[in-house]
Every structure is written in structure tokens, then in C-alpha cells.
């Protein structure tokens, strides 16, 4: 991925979606961080949402914590397909690490 050279001047957002591997632990973390309880929690099975994420369908658990500035933090734990834990590494880092592992095993 390359960085954009032209700023998009993002000044507002309604929601930020964060994919998490353990929703309960993530709720506890964000409650401690913000002092806020989730305003919504639930489960969802959806073909349209799955397609918006590049999947055929998806089943997930979610929780939303709202901040004072009206920003909603949407925590999303995919149940189908099960998400891969990254431990903070982005997809480009995982791809490089995977290629290195394959080279070592050859």
C-alpha cells in the first residue's frame, strides 16, 4: 500500500470500525479507556455486510461505544469467517513474514 500524497482533509467521522479477536476483552479495554458502557451490543448475520468486507457472507458479534464528540467506536468480532489474530501487525507485514517463513522452509 502506498501513502496518499494529497490530503483528504478528513475532519469528522460518525463511526470507526475495529475488528477484534476477543469482543469481551475489547469491550473491557475500551470501557476502561473511555469510562463508557456500550450503547449497543448484538450479533448479526449478513450477506450485504459480508460483501462490503469482500466476503460472501458474515456472522459477527459487535458492540458500539460512543464518545462525547459523537464518534462511535464499533468493535467487531467476526465469527464466520473467523478472523485471524494479527497482534498489531498489518496485512503487509503479515505477507512479508509469510514469504520469509516460506523461504526458510524451502
Describe this structure in words.
There is one protein chain. The chain has about 110 residues and is of the alpha+beta class. The chain has a single domain, classed as Roll (2,3-Dihydroxybiphenyl 1,2-Dioxygenase, domain 1). The protein has 3 helices and 4 strands, in the order E-H-E-H-E-E-H. It has helices spanning about 25-35, 45-50, 90-105, and strands at about 15-20, 40-45, 60-65, 70-80. Strands 1-4-3-2 form a 4-stranded mixed sheet. Residues about 95-100 have low confidence and may be disordered.
What portion of residues belong to β-strands? 25-35%
Number of alpha- plus pi-helical segments? 3
The count of strands amounts to 4
Which assembly state applies to the chains in this document? single chain
State the order of secondary-structure elements, H for helix, E for strand. EHEHEEH
Low-confidence stretches: 93-102
Tally of structural domains: 1
What overall form do the CA principal axes indicate?
globular
What is the CATH third-level topology name?
2,3-Dihydroxybiphenyl 1,2-Dioxygenase, domain 1
Q: What is the CATH architecture descriptor?
A: Roll
Helix content: 25-40%
Termini separation comes to 27 Å
Quick one: biggest sheet? 4 strands, mixed
The residue-averaged pLDDT reads: 81
CATH class: Alpha Beta
Rg estimate, integer Å: 17 Å
Which homologous superfamily in CATH is the superfamily? 2,3-Dihydroxybiphenyl 1,2-Dioxygenase, domain 1
Amino acid at each position: 500500500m502506498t501513502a496518499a500524497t494529497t490530503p483528504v482533509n478528513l475532519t469528522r467521522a460518525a463511526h470507526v470500525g475495529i475488528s477484534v479477536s476477543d469482543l469481551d476483552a475489547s469491550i473491557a479495554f475500551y470501557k476502561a479507556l473511555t469510562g463508557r458502557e456500550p450503547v449497543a451490543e448484538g450479533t448479526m448475520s449478513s450477506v450485504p455486510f459480508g460483501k462490503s468486507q469482500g466476503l460472501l457472507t458474515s456472522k459477527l458479534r459487535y458492540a458500539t461505544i460512543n464518545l462525547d464528540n459523537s464518534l462511535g467506536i464499533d468493535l467487531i468480532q467476526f465469527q464466520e469467517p473467523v478472523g485471524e489474530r494479527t497482534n498489531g501487525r498489518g496485512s503487509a507485514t503479515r505477507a512479508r513474514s509469510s514469504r520469509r517463513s516460506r523461504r526458510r522452509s524451502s
